Automatic annotation (TrEMBL):
Protein name according to UniProt: MFS transporter
Matching PANTHER family: CHLORAMPHENICOL EFFLUX PUMP RV0191, PURINE EFFLUX PUMP PBUE
Chief site of localization: membrane
GO molecular function: transmembrane transporter activity
GO cellular component, one term: plasma membrane
Annotated TM spans: 38-61, 73-93, 99-121, 133-154, 160-181, 201-224, 236-254, 266-283, 289-309, 330-352, 358-377
Length: 397
């Protein structure tokens, strides 16, 4: 494994920690600012919208400079946003800090995915992408639970200050380990935009929005669901988030392994399984053991979709992968924003803390239907899809 992948994984660890830790600290933040839980949920939605906007914006700016330099700038922006959140006197300033940090997120994973894929042989690309995303999944096993514990014990501001420090470590790691890759020839905005003319790219992104939205519908409100419905203590939320992180880690490895060989069957299995588990979670949330198993499965099935969906976008975008890759990361977060908002709506409507699970099941089911449709379209137009598939080789070298 190239050491550069480790540097990318460190950056991913910091980003993953700040994205997910807010869910475990939602009650503390809401209490501190004197707002309701659904209102505090806007910190999840706001971050996700910032990723959606920041992914194409920062990637377009990044086409003018080398990829390593851009990755370092993004980690600097990420650290600054978390410092703002740590010191925020009001909920509005806290949200602004979240948005500043989120602007770096999509472009980091988008550009990082392309860099990771370029560092290895063609038949190992999905595995390399999965290695970078391992940082994101390990964040959920170590960073998020630790951040939640610190936030509950010492105060949530300390958690965000710690995440800002992680951003600085990520920046230094990239400076030291990632090779100085030249700006790719022909990396022009117009050329990158042409990737979106391919309906398969748009379908993969729609699958990303709906599939990952299914995960976030349930996980955004995991703290109140587990304490009010399953009967867990506030302290147990930390360990339930560890379980979610373990599921994400295993699912990401599984997705990376099979995406290089059997991409579409991997998507069918993970999306179908996710829809079923989320539907059942409405019932299993009332039992401590079954609720814990459900959280593990939601993490595993949700993240098993990440390497195949990211690789499918890179494959279908052909010679212009950078913007499409970043926008697909934005699509993950559009799903997060949509699901966090919908989950808040069904709770505010008085349907209870398990209602977001139904929202998630419907979103994941819709993603599965899109995957079937995408494969049917591909079978109908095999010549057009396969002809340009060999094109990326001269572009990158």
């Amino acid at each position: 494994m190239p050491l550069a992948l480790l540097a990318l994984a460190i950056g991913a660890f910091g980003i993953g920690t700040t994205e997910f830790v807010v869910m475990g600290l939602l009650p503390e933040i809401a209490g501190d600012y004197g707002v309701s839980i659904p209102s505090a949920g806007l910190l999840v939605t706001g971050y996700a919208i910032g990723v959606v906007v920041g992914a194409p914006l920062m990637t377009v700016l990044g086409t003018r400079i080398g990829r390593r330099t851009m990755l370092m700038l993004l980690m600097g922006l990420f650290a600054a946003g978390n410092l703002i959140s740590a010191a925020a006197p009001t909920m509005g300033v806290m949200l602004a800090g979240r948005i500043v940090a989120s602007l770096a997120h999509g472009a980091f994973f988008g550009i990082g995915s392309v860099v990771a894929a370029d560092l290895v042989a063609p038949d190992k690309k999905a595995g390399a992408i999965a290695t970078m995303f391992t940082g994101l999944t390990v964040a959920n096993i170590v960073g998020v639970p630790l951040g939640t514990f610190i936030g509950q014990a010492v105060g949530w501001r300390t958690t965000f200050a710690g995440v800002a420090a992680l951003g600085v470590v990520g920046l230094l790691g990239i400076a030291k380990l990632v090779p100085a890759l030249p700006r790719p020839e022909g990396a022009h905005l117009r050329r990158e935009v042409t990737a979106f003319r391919n309906p398969q790219v748009l379908l993969a992104m729609a699958m990303t929005v709906l599939g990952f939205g299914g995960v976030f519908a349930a996980i955004t409100y995991i703290a109140p669901m587990m304490t009010h419905v399953a009967g867990y203590s506030d302290g147990a939320v930390t360990w339930l988030l560890v379980l979610f992180g373990v599921g994400m880690f295993l699912g990401n490895l599984l997705g990376g392994r099979f995406a290089d060989r059997r991409l579409m069957p991997m998507l069918y299995a993970s999306l179908g399984g996710l829809a079923v588990v989320l539907a059942l979670f409405t019932l299993t949330a009332h039992d401590k053991v079954l609720a814990a198993v459900s959280i593990l499965l939601v993490g595993a099935l949700g993240f098993a979709t990440v390497p195949p969906l990211q690789k499918r976008v890179l494959d279908q975008a052909h010679g212009a992968p950078t913007l499409a890759s970043a926008v697909n990361i934005g699509a993950f977060n559009l799903g997060n924003a949509l699901a966090a908002w919908l989950g808040g709506q069904v709770i505010a409507a008085g349907l209870g803390y398990t209602a977001p699970n139904w929202v998630g099941a419907l979103l994941a089911g819709a993603a599965l239907l899109l995957a079937v449709w995408s494969a049917a379209l591909e079978r109908r137009t095999p010549v057009r899809d396969s002809a340009p598939a060999a094109a990326p080789v001269p572009v990158h070298h």
